[in-house]
Amino acid sequence: MTGVSKIIVYNSKNEFLLQLREDGPGTGFSTYWDLIGKAVEELENPANAARRELLKTLGIYIENPVLFRVHNDGDTKHHIFAAKIDAKVSELNLGEGVEVRWFRATELNNTRMAFNYRAVLWDFIKINNAAGMGQQNERTNT
Question: Which DSSP string do the residues of 51-94 spell out, in sequence order?
Fold first, then answer.
């Protein structure tokens, strides 16, 4: 079974940072919005994969990403972490993807999202009220 580590990145305004997937041959869900993250490398811990992808994609290091859920989708195991990051898009160092953008929850249903991550975000919103979301992991810029 293959594995991916994805991070629900949110801010104090309860917005969600999504990454626009690249358009190219062999890219599934090209030009769809996605959570930050990618495949877990061989012998890599899923939390380390989440840290690596956040650093590589946004230039931000998170010491302890909070595991939100693990679920299987066919032959892929999805490790979903959460991290609170209060930063403007202009402050981020985009290293992968076409662009990143903050989305309000009210925009999610009208956003083309990869995989089943819209449902994952709605579950996250339901489980974490505004006070609970604010108590998650804080960011560190590198």
Answer: HHHHHHHHSEE-SSPEEEEEEEETTEEEEEEEEE----GGGS--
